[in-house]
Amino acid sequence: MRFFKRYFITGLLIWIPLVITIWVIALLISTLESFVPTFLSSQSLFGYRIPGFQVVLVVAVVLLTGLLGANFIGRAMVERWEQLLGRIPLVRSIYNSVKQVSDTVLSSSGQAFREAVLVQYPRQGSWTIAFLTGVPSGEVADKLGGDYVSVYVPTTPNPTSGFFLMMPRQDVHVLDMSVDAALKYIVSMGVVAPVSVKTAETGLEAALSIDAACAIDTVEHAREPGEKQP
To answer: In what order do the strands lie in the sheet with 127-134?
Structure first.
């Protein structure tokens, strides 16, 4: 029984990450393909199914939209389109909210989700990892009346759901780790220990130094016995 348990768990440790990875990729592909109309599918255009055709089509459309939106004419068209959507009551509220969130999160100049922090939640003495999303503004900032920051506390093991909190800046401790490392720590329920940015850089420098030393040693051994060093 101990033999069976040992090797069965070993097999699970090999298969579970692979199966979950394939499942996530398949889910992403099927989601992207669902946005493509039937008349633009490979069956309708060419008479036979081409795997991944819809995904490539979606990526091409997004890339082309980005290229068009980066120039003057494209920006003018986008502004007119947004003005048109702004005249529709229900659509206006949804579109503006989603656009503000996407602009904040995806913008390269934004600060949302750029830093992992440590906060006490849900009570004093209990600590969890959160992500800095900005600072309160408008009426909320006036009511708070102090130096506050906005943080997002993700849940485990699904970080897409969580809690939005506004906390005093002094109660928020910035962590020396990347956002990716913090997400891995959250998803793994604390099993995968995060590595700080400084530790990772130190390890990289050490590895480069070892590689350089090995390269020099290889060159030295490759020299002819009577060859003089420059």
So the answer is: 162-168, 148-154, 127-134, 116-120, 173-174
